[in-house]
Amino acid sequence: MLLGQKLSGHRGVVAIVGLLGLTIGGSAALFVTSQSMDRNAADRQQQQVQKGVERTLAASGVQASAIAARLEPAQRIAQLGPDQAATWLDNELGRPTVSGDYTKSVAIMTRSEAIYGYTKGGRADSEDLDEIQNAAARLVASLGEKAPAGPDAKAAPSGEALPTKSDLSSVHGVPVLIAASRLPGSGEPLALVTMTYMDETMVNRWGSTLMLDGFGIVGPRDTPAPGTRSVALTAADGTALGHMVWRPAHPGEAIRSYVIPATLAIGALVLGLFLMLAHRANALREEADSSSMRARFLERFDPDTGLVNRATFIRQLEHVAGSHPCQLILLDVDDFSTINETLGHEVGDEVVREFGQRLLKEFPGPRCLVARLDGDEFAVLIAGNADLHDLGPRSTSIVVSRAGGEQAVISVTISAGIAAAPEHGHFAGALMRHADIALGAAKAAGPASHVVYNPALGESFMSRKGLEARMKKAIEDEGFELFYQPIISLRTMKPSGVEALLRLKQGATDTPAVFVPVIEKLGLMPQLGAWIIQQAFRDSRRWPDLRTSINLSPLQLENRALLDQIDFNRARFHVSPGAIGFEITEGVLLNKSATVHANLQGLRERGYLIALDDFGTGYSSLSYLSEFDIHRLKLDQSFIRGGRLSEGRSAVLVQGVIDICHKLGIDVVAEGVEDLAEAATLREWDCDFAQGYQFGKPAPARVAAQNLINLQNQAISIIDYRTGEPRLGLQ
Asked: In 211-304, where does DSSP find H-type helix?
């Protein structure tokens, strides 16, 4: 693409030129500024070094003048002998003066010679004195004529400065700072001389104080290295003593190394972003038309299948249903969540797309409109009159196959609910609602089913919705209670336990057979089951010597928190596991879930009795008795009630189950016992326990507790005093 095409006309070109000019011009200005910063920094350092030398010379003179002013060496020397005078000078002048960091030597000189000296090594010898004399003779001579002599000679008045001078010199090629000050009160002019060597220690201290890189001193014949700055060390007579040299600071280097490259990089980045944005703007303009077309498409169609979407379908349904006969089919893929879980969402999407295409082929032409409403839900609108009962088979005959695991083929089906206008409604909302009710009935009937709406379905739907609402409210408002029915020992005819049975509170007419499946469908069973366990544990304290049996639903056994709930209530109410039993149905034993089996094992390990309830119905199999470790079996009432025990085949079956259970160490409870004759027969067959209306109907906990007392007393009254056995079937 040409540059002019990437930019917005010539204004873009002007912007780029301006940006380049600013970037390059700014970088050049920064470079010049950095050079100026380097020069200014070097000049400032040179001034600091020059002033440092001057200040040090002045300080040496002040030090020498101060030392000279506080001494009276002439009088002392005159009063003391030579040896004592020398010792006195060592203590008062030599050692104190050279103890500092810089002063290396001190001496007393006449104009012609050094008569006393002291160095870092001690009192100066003749060689040291010669070195001092050679270095300081010129400076001492320049102090002027001698002071007045004689006994009347006085020191300079207090506060008046003594004649003092300082200069640079050299000893063995090392520059030294020399200061000389006239000693007061001496007949012959004497001078106090201090010498400070500019050695490595002093140079390092200067370099550290002034923060100079590579600071040092080179000889007078050495040339400073390129790129360095220097200050000449020269005596007052012009003798060159050397140079103080260092590498000057370069504050502008940071600008050259970092700021200028960063400026150029930022300029390049901004320019690149500008070009990219310009290119993107151009691309967006090119995409604008296609995007608007895409947006218009998405307003009306489903992007995955190409079918019209819900909004478009509802608008068309509203237009047709209000003025013309039509048929509406709502369709839902059967068990679609399992497809996604087992084969993956990509395969699920493929299945949805294929169903959409198959529906288009099944319902072609301008009179039919196929839509994808949501996920795995489809709808078909057919304008005009059509055979309602023909539409269902046409829809549900569509089957999509996909390869599953282990070379198996999974066939995916679809269910349909059908409604028609004007028979089932004149408006889109009514038709959609009625077709959805029919679809719900079709899903309940099984895979690949279809149902045409009728008013009875609507009533059933409303009834089911009403029941669901009542169950939700009952759970929220604790609208349930537990009733308890006695379980009698046929050996003693005394109560051995009770079974907890769920009931709605007084005034409700729905039975457990009706409302429990609804609660399970709503997913509320874990919440309700936890309340049942808690209430049963609490009520069991009313009859501490009897066992309370609690029914566990399959959904409760699939709850991983079940054992924690039971442990919590046992500890809360201080109930022994021997006082509680749990009843399960045969369907639980068909469940291979690891959670279910772990919960059952946990109940056994904790010492709870496990009973198999309603044996003889559903999928009853004697193999359960050998495969699963249960403690008690409850024979379903269908084997007992209505005189079944007197029937030959039924009697054989009951006796056979009792015998088998006893040989396996399993107790047997007969349910549905309604008279003493049945109890007597069961006792003759060695049945262990009985439960039924003969011994009491289910009742609230308070009433049940009194019933248990009555049953206990009744059992005592019917014992035959001759045999000690209950008198059954004689009343």
From this structure: 252-254, 260-300
Using CA atoms, how far apart are residues 495 and 713, in angstroms rounded to an integer? Answer: 10
> Is residue 83 within 8 Å of residue 92, measured between CB atoms?
no
Q: Where, residue-wise, is CATH 3.20.20.450 in the chain?
A: 474-708
Q: What is residue 406's predicted lDDT score, i.e. its pLDDT? A: 58
Structure confidence by residue, pLDDT tens digits, 73-120: 656 665 666 677 778 888 888 888 887 666 678 888 888 888 888 888
Return the structure tokens found at 222.
């050495």
Give the CA count within 13 Å in the CB-facing half-sphere of 545: 7
Tokens standing for residue 320: 């047709």
Q: How far apart are CA 478 and CA 285, in angstroms?
A: 64
Strands 689-691 and 229-234: unpaired
First to last CA, the chain: 111
**Closest of 70, 64, 94 to residue 155, by C-alpha:** 70
Between the alpha carbon of residue 250 and those of residues 44, 212, 502, the distances in Å are: 12, 11, 92
Counting other chains too, the contacts that 612-621 makes at CB distance below 8 Å and 24 or more residues apart are 612/583, 612/584, 612/585, 612/586, 613/551, 613/583, 613/584, 613/585, 614/585, 614/586, 614/671, 615/586, 615/657, 616/657, 617/586, 618/585, 618/586, 618/587, 619/586, 619/587, 619/590, 620/586, 621/586
Contacts of 657 (CB under 8 A, 6+ apart): 615, 616, 622, 633, 635, 668
Count Cα atoms within 13 angstroms, Cβ side, for 490: 27
For the record, the structure tokens of 618 come out as 């559903």
CB neighbour class for 652 (10 Å; exposed up to 12, middle 13-18, buried from 19)? exposed
Query: Would you tell me how many other CB atoms lie within 10 Å of the CB of residue 639?
Result: 20
The third-level CATH classification (topology) of the domain covering 310-453 is Alpha-Beta Plaits (3.30.70)
The rounded Cα 153 to chain-centroid distance in angstroms is 95
- Give long-range contacts, CB 8 A cutoff, 24+ apart: 562-565: 562/599, 563/599, 563/602, 563/603, 563/606, 565/530, 565/533, 565/534
In the sheet that 213-218 helps form, which strands lie side by side, from edge to edge?
A: 213-218, 240-247, 229-234
> 517: which residues sit within 8 A by CB, 6+ positions away?
none
Instruction: List, for residues 456-490, the tens digit of each pLDDT value.
Output: 776 666 667 777 777 787 777 778 899 999 999 99
Residue found under tokens 């189950």:
657
What stretches in the chain show pLDDT beneath 50? 1-7, 146-159, 729-731
Report DSSP letters for 599-629, one per residue. Answer: HHHHHHHTT-EEEEEEETBTT--THHHHHS-
Q: Is residue 512 within a helix (H) or strand (E), and if so which, with residue range?
A: helix 512-521
Distance CA 626, CA 27 (A): 93
How far apart, in whole angstroms, are the C-alpha atoms of residue 607 and residue 241?
A: 108
* Dihedral angle sign, alpha carbons of residues 145, 146, 150, 156: positive
Angle at 232 between CA 227 and CA 234, to 5 degrees: 170
At CA 473, angle to CA 470 and CA 479, rounded to 5? 95
pLDDT of 550 = 95
Among the listed residues 256, 257, 248, 253, the one whose alpha carbon sits nearest the alpha carbon of residue 40: 248
Report the CATH number of the 67-145+159-247 domain.
Answer: 3.30.450.20
Provide the token pair at 506. 């007084």
Q: What's the CATH fold of domain 474-708?
A: TIM Barrel (3.20.20)
Q: Which residue has the tokens 């050692």?
A: 95
**Exposure on the CB side of residue 22, measured as CA atoms within 13 A:** 13
Length of the chain, in residues: 731
Classify residue 337 as exposed, middle or buried by CB count within 10 Å of its CB (0-12, 13-18, 19+). exposed
Q: How far apart are CA 626 and CA 629, in angstroms?
A: 7
Instruction: Say which amino acid occupies 435.
Output: A
Residue span(s) of the chain under CATH 3.30.450.20 come to 67-145+159-247
374 DSSP β-pair partners: 377
